[in-house]
Write a structure and sequence with these properties.
This protein is mainly alpha-helical. It has one domain: Ammonium transporter AmtB like domains (Ammonium transporter fold), CATH 1.10.3430. It is built from 13 helices and 2 strands. It has helices at residues 26-44, 54-77, 107-125, 141-159, 168-196, 201-215, 224-249, 257-274, 282-287, 289-297, 302-329, 338-343, 345-348; strands spanning 5-8, 11-14. The longest helix has 29 residues, at 168-196. The chain starts with a strand and ends in an 11-residue tail after the last helix. The model has no long low-confidence stretch (mean pLDDT 90).
Length: 359
């Protein structure tokens, strides 16, 4: 028997672990959590596209996962984690901090941590060589649209799946995810239409991702009406962050990892507190009755705790990411040589091409 997994009679049997989840086998829960674990460092890649050495990327992802992601995941979801809301009341335990931050499916753990890391990566690596002189248009808008559609559908697995059961809570998370995403997909191109005179498909799919990000921490704690508001505002703030803020600060975030995931995650975490409905999630009352009573009585400030969670995540991820990057920079080296960047990383780093010219 090892961590809820038992090898017996030539087969693998996974028992439920009541500390984390009693509704599915613990092995299933482990694999589900690994999905979050692998996607988080992958999100950072959007910021340093076309500049980082492949070897440096591998080392960075491995170290960042261990030093940033794992502690963040434990703080928010781990048994007796620093910001784990249910750890204050489950099985009579007390985490000793009295700090309950709500994050249903990864707003702080996944999106803010990776978004801030993306910003630090863009700042330390610097701009792409031709960023100023040549327009960096989307490579293939059709594929981008298909990818956004796949994300929209796949995100239901993250958010609704975080209910860890096929019940009313999963339905709420599913509905909130869909409504927020639709609202953000309208808000971003609407902002473009007002500010630039033309709405774009790229704006619509970027808005959809912004809505998915923003509703992630809130999807199990708010009502569908609130989800619409959260998503609609996310479309505007992420559009502003990905265009005007990026231009004002002068960093080169190739795929707007910070503009969408960082800013969208920060808004979503704070919005979770603003629109929090204590009776939306039965687990709040069942797992942490003292916390439930404090929220009902108005003695527990949900918004303040969400802001504290945002600040801790920003500072922790930002500092840790900078240390990791600088360590790699002065050992292995971070950035490819100029001629390799001009040639293209597919050729210079991997010896292959995505397209071949017809002769």
């Amino acid at each position: 028997m090892l961590d809820g997994v038992l090898w017996k009679d030539g087969a693998l049997h996974a028992a439920a672990n009541g500390t984390y989840v009693a509704s599915v086998p613990h092995g299933t829960f482990m694999i589900f959590q690994l999905m979050f674990a692998i996607i988080t460092p992958a999100l950072i890649c959007g910021a340093y596209a076309e500049r980082m050495k492949f070897s440096a990327m591998l080392v960075f992802n491995a170290i960042w996962f261990c030093i940033v992601y794992l502690p963040m995941a434990h703080m928010v979801w781990g048994d007796e984690g620093l910001m784990n809301w249910w750890a204050t009341g489950v099985n009579g335990k007390d985490n000793g901090f009295g700090w309950a931050a709500f994050d249903f499916a990864g707003g702080t753990v996944v999106h803010i941590s990776s978004g801030v890391a993306a910003l630090m990566t863009a700042l330390i690596l610097g701009k792409r060589k031709d960023m100023v002189t040549e327009p960096m248009r989307p490579h293939n808008l059709t594929l981008s649209f298909i990818g956004a559609c796949l994300l929209w559908v796949g995100w239901f697995g993250f958010n609704a799946g975080s209910a860890l059961q096929a019940g009313g809570l999963a339905t709420l998370a599913f509905a909130n995810t869909h409504f927020a995403t639709a609202a953000a997909a309208l808000a971003w191109p609407l902002a473009e239409w007002v500010l630039r005179g033309k709405p774009t498909m790229l704006g619509a799919i970027s808005g959809a991702v912004a809505g998915l990000v923003a509703i992630t921490p809130a999807c199990g704690f708010v009502t569908p009406g609130s989800a619409l508001i959260i998503g609609f505002i996310a479309g505007f703030v992420c559009m502003a962050g990905s265009t005007y803020l990026k231009k004002a600060l002068g960093y080169d975030d190739a795929l707007d990892a910070f503009g969408v995931h960082g800013i969208g995650g920060i808004w979503g975490a704070i919005a979770t507190g603003i629109f929090f409905q204590v009776d939306a999630n039965p687990g709040v009352k069942g797992l942490a009755p003292d916390l439930y009573a404090a929220i009902q009585a108005g003695t527990h400030n949900v918004v303040l705790n969400q802001i504290k969670a945002v600040l801790l995540t920003v500072v922790f991820s930002g500092i840790a990411t900078a240390v990791i990057l600088l360590g790699i920079k002065y050992t292995l080296g971070l950035r490819v040589k100029e001629d390799e960047e001009v040639q293209g990383l597919d050729v210079s780093q991997h010896g292959e091409e995505g397209y071949h010219k017809l002769t």
